[in-house]
Amino acid sequence: MDNSVPHNEKVLLIGLNTGQDDYDYSMVELRKLAKANNMEVVGRIDQPLDEPNAATYFGSGKVKQLHDLVQTTGVTTVIANDELSPSQLKNLTDQIGVRIIDRTALILEIFAQRAKTKEAKLQVQIAQLQYRLPRLHTASNQVLDQQTGAGAGFANRGSGETQIELDRRVIQRQISHLRQELKNVQRSEQVKRSQRDKSSIPTAALVGYTNAGKSTIMNELLSRFGLVKDKQVFTKDMLFATLDTSVRQLTLPDQKRFLLSDTVGFVSKLPTHLIEAFKSTLQEAAKADLLVQVIDYSDPHRDEMIKTTERTLSEIGIENIPMIYVFNKADKVDETDYPTMEGDSRVIISAKNPESIDFLAKTIKNKLFSDYVQADLLVPFADGQVVSYLNEHTNILDTDYQTDGTRLKVELSPEDLQRLSKYEVQ
Ligand SMILES: Nc1nc2c(ncn2[C@@H]2O[C@H](COP(=O)(O)OP(=O)(O)OP(=O)(O)O)[C@@H](O)[C@H]2O)c(=O)[nH]1
Ligand SMILES: [Mg+2]
């Protein structure tokens, strides 16, 4: 036996091509998702159809072809590119005889594997139960039939329905219990969040397609501009390496500070329940002053990835926040000049290149602090605490000790200037 071959589950992909532009890309993505779930894709069947067959997703001829291919390849799972209705799922399972899952269930399985923090685990569990709720009859009926040894008799139907009703209530109770637990876990996070809200430090949020390099950029910025005690975030070459949100403070050489958050990556057709469950995690992005969309410049599907990210952001309700586009991994694209800027919101960089990281930091700074102003202040010696504040929070361009106090030329936020206006020298 060849031990070098991993014993992964063998799967078949099925997709319905209704003529949508991004069909091929969505199938490429489905393959990547299967791989991320340790599955080995051994085949794929596509059917061009105007709309899915309401009963079986594929038309009857294709279902037959699928059945035969499952037999000859010995696959144990079939994955549909679209979310299947409860009855499509049941009918297909009955006719094909192996496990059928859809894109949503696959994404949920990956998230369940990746979730590490208590918060992420609870969020995924809730989304999984919500997904199962309308699909109970597909699994539990079969289990019930097996338990009772009964066929499809009338007597069984009544007890089956009661059983489903019971299961449904159990799951609903589990969901509300988990929601409560999630609320408790999030309470402590909320305290941190509201403290940050009060701090009035500008914030930027890294967003984008999964595996684009968001966490790598976060770490590189941290190691140059972060606090020594700050922990690095997890990065890896796999889909959905990050499921929770991390926020770190960065201080640039001219004392300008901002908060940067790193969060879960996107993929097309992210399950609604998952988006719902992750909404609070994504609050950091919702409140940001600037979105930093990271894109894998070396991926041929990068334009579709940008569309996916923007569609997901608007589904979460994140709109009208200024954005810069960071085309990352330029080192993987031959004959590319980097770091460079195209127009006033597109940057081409490589996270692995220190010069790129400085360039990106400067670009973020220019966007976040564009309303900062220069002012000339004279602070009497008695108000020493004001000078300390300025030292810590603003960029001091010049200091001069005069007989009536400290004269400073500073760069500061309009809010700070307003508060300190009595010291301003006109
Ligand atoms: N060659 C190259 N690889 C990079 C660059 N930036 C990131 N990577 C690699 O890309 C992979 C994914 O990086 P991550 O930072 O984990 O990506 P992410 O966007 O946080 O992904 P998710 O958390 O899954 O959304 C890792 O293997 C990184 O080492 C880059 O500029 N050049
Ligand atoms: Mg990440």
UniProtKB/TrEMBL annotation:
CDD domains (UniProt xref): HflX (cd01878)
UniProt main location, coarse: cytoplasm
Residues in Hflx-type G domain copies: 202-372
Subcellular location: Cytoplasm
Protein keywords: Cytoplasm, GTP-binding, Magnesium, Metal-binding, Nucleotide-binding
Nucleotide-binding among keywords: yes
Coiled-coil blocks: none
The keyword Transmembrane helix appears for this protein: no
Any matching Pfam family: GTP-bdg_N
SUPFAM superfamilies per record: P-loop containing nucleoside triphosphate hydrolases
GO CC term, one of those recorded: cytoplasm
Subunit record text: Monomer. Associates with the 50S ribosomal subunit.
Protein name: GTPase HflX
Annotated binding of GTP, by residue: 208-215, 240-244, 262-265, 328-331, 350-352
GO MF assignments: GTP binding; GTPase activity; metal ion binding; ribosome binding
Family: Belongs to the TRAFAC class OBG-HflX-like GTPase superfamily. HflX GTPase family.
Function: GTPase that associates with the 50S ribosomal subunit and may have a role during protein synthesis or ribosome biogenesis.
Binding site for Mg(2+): 215, 242
Cofactors that this protein relies on: Mg(2+)
